[in-house]
Every structure is written in C-alpha cells, then in structure tokens.
Amino acid sequence: MLEEILNSKSDSAILSFFLVAPERSFSALEISKRLKLPYFRTTYILNKLAQHGQLSSFTKKDKKYYLINTKYKLLPEIKTFLLKNGPRYSDELFGAIKRLGEIKAAFLSGIFTGYANLPVDILLVGRINLKKLDLFLKSAKKMMGQDLNYSIMTPAEFIQRRDTFDKFIRDIFDYRHLVVVDELKKKS
After folding, report:
1. What is the 3-state secondary structure (H, E, C) of 12-69?
2. Rounded Cα distance, 115 and 150, in Å
3. Four-residue CA torsion sign, 154, 157, 163, 167
C-alpha cells in the first residue's frame, strides 16, 4: 500500500498537502480546487486513504471532511519521504486570516480540527476589516462547502474571558485547536 501511494502522483500530492497542516481538516472540494484535481478522482483517493488508515473523516451537514491520521503507523516514513521528494504546498488559510485586519489572536477549531459540533470554527481577536472578513468567508464557503461559524472579540474581552475560564473559550482550548496568531499568550 505504501509503495502504491508513493508511486501515485495524485495520492502523494494529496498526502503532501495534508502534511502542510496535519492538524487541520479539509473537504474534498478544497483539496480538489487547491490541487487542481478532478473532484471525483479526489473523493476516490480520499476515501481510499481513509479506508487504509492514512486519513480519518467526519461529516458535518452532509459534507465530509478529512484529517491526516497522526496515529497511522507508517506516517513517519511517509512524511520523511514526501517532505524530501514530494510537492511543496502552503496552507493559504493562515495567511488569509492574518490579512483580515489588526489580528492579535486567531484560533481555528470546530470544523477545521474535526470537532464539527463546537460552536465556533474561527475565533478572531483584534480589529477586523469586515469587508475583508466577508470576502474571506465567501471564499471559505466555496472551498469548505458550507458556512463557517466565527466570533470576533476585542483583546480586552478575550483576555477577560480566557482568564475567567469562560465556557465559550474553554470549548476552543479544551479541544484540539490551531493557533494562527497569538500575541496575547497567557504569561505563566
């Protein structure tokens, strides 16, 4: 199976893409568009990789999302090989979020990390350009296949809620989440 993946240009491209952000989930539509692969070929490969254990999946509102299975026993070898020999990708999402305004902190959870039932997918802290945010959300909907739940806070509100163990904030930090930016890290 490993040799088959590494010898297949499409399979290895998809796995290389997942290695860019191994904690983040992707829809088949996003993978298809970003890698310029036919959608049905992409879904076939994603389902095959999930069936063989390289990926895991979950569903939200009838849309399927995939994550790399970090517990897959051959992942270290695949990662070493693909980082050395595979195509190079970047996760455009992180850069797009950083350009939404004066971002002091930004966190991804919910649909991006495999916890589709959490109340928020993106938490933004700072001064956000609402026009840029609207364009970002429309673009993300095209890529992800559905609307994203987001929340915006001022730095003062975020710090107060974080420091008082607010349930909304705990729902992000108690589960797997991705830190895009965090200039407001709690001092230990």
Report:
1. HHHHHHHHHCCCCCEEHHHHHHHHCCCHHHHHHHHHHHHHCCCEEEEEECCEEEEEEC
2. 14
3. negative
Decide the pairing of beta strands 101-108 and 178-182.
antiparallel
Residue range 118-149, pLDDT digits in tens: 889 999 999 999 999 999 999 988 888 889 99
Q: Are strands 122-128 and 150-153 parallel, antiparallel or unpaired?
A: parallel
pTM of the model: 0.83
Q: How many CB atoms sit inside 10 A of residue 69's CB?
A: 18
Do residues 111 and 63 lie in contact, with contact meaning Cβ atoms separated by under 8 Å?
no
What pLDDT score was predicted for residue 20?
78
Which of 59, 90, 121 marks a domain boundary? 90
- The reply to whether 85 and 148 lie within a common domain is no
What pLDDT score does 17 carry?
87
**Residue 35: which domain range?**
2-90
Give the pLDDT confidence score for residue 6 in this predicted structure: 61
* Alpha carbon distance 146, 137 (integer Å): 10
Q: Could you say which residues of the chain have pLDDT below 50?
A: none
